[in-house]
Amino acid sequence: MEWNISSLKDLEHYFWRCTACGTCRSAYDFGPPPFTRPICPAGTEFGFEGYYSSKGKAAFARGISDGSLTFDDPEFLEAVYKCTVCGGCQNQCQVDYKPHIPEVIEAMRREAVKSGAGPMPAQKNLVQSMKNYNNPYQGPRRVRMDWTRPFKKAKTPIKDINTEPAEVLFYVGCTGAFNKIAQAVPQATARIFQKLGVAFGILGESEVCCGSTAMRVGDAEEFKRVATNNLETFKTLHAEKGVKTIVTSCAGCFRAIKKDYILSSEYNQMMDGIEVLHTVQYLHRLLKEGKLKFEKELPWKVTYHDPCHTGRHLNKFRVDNDGSELWEGAYVSVDESECLYDLPREIIKAIPGVSFVEMDRIRGNSYCCGGGGGVMTGFTDWAGKNAGLRIQEGMETGAEKMVSICPFCYFNLTEGAKRISSNITLHDLTELIDLALPD
Prior knowledge:
four-stranded parallel beta sheet; alpha/beta; 439 residues; Rossmann fold
């Protein structure tokens, strides 16, 4: 299977087009009332221009390209990895560099890995864990089933799709399976599916990491290994077990399958007849069809955090590749229609008793939780500190709860709340849905 993953050289045409204007440093909203707030976690924390958003990363890429910067310098290597690859800067940029910014950052990391310098030491452990256990959490495969224990105890076991057919594959993801706090997400999801009578199954111990973690830290080879495995598994499940829909509650898994897997030359063949949905998309569809009905009130005041991977990372950019509209390589426009901005908000507002309030930085301007791009593993303290900033923003609204649709955000924001001793609590949207459904 061939993979079309860009090298830094392939992207050179674009990162030289950064004008270093600095627009990427802040989130803007014309209101009314208008406001501006920082958008780059690395720039906010470290200040130095090289850390700031896409302008700093373009300068790094140019330095690697012309040989003036090398990964032999440990300070430079660390600077390349001190970025959550959240795409906040990309949302602000308006030049031809815009569509390619996260790819340039990750291409630099791929260069670091090829040179033998990257990733960071703690991140090397998670990549080795993937090689040993097919997950980045250094957990034996059998532990992947721990989250299902309450269902066995209640005598409502979850179907093993390896042995029993089902139209829906619930692809759990490593964070939901191995992270004790985030296990609340797959548990709530499975309870909802059982209450609604959804014919679903899981891969259990045979589930393999989506590869997002490896891709984000620059290990393309490890990503290709697990992604190829998954594509082959999905094709087999469709042919032999009747799987028509893959549903995941993990923003990282969703982004990987929707955006990274299409880099495979055989993606269309492998995924023929299979629809990939985030849980929110699947449940929103049932809500509109009248199959998802809320009966219980939740007297909660909540705000919503847009994950990067279900938001701006799903932007589709239109580029003038041949120069027929503007000039060759020109950024033309962006399509946000696949970003999951409206659906979670519509579900929240449909739950009886919920009072919904927005933070300042939302949708494409959402401020990253601070855990992405390998930062939660490589720079744990900074990840927690940045999450505290987002929690503070949630507290400014007067909300008692912060809701999201990503187990990674769920965990890191929970750590951020602890760090600043905030009373605000984190919840995945599936938890709210589960609580509002009749028993």
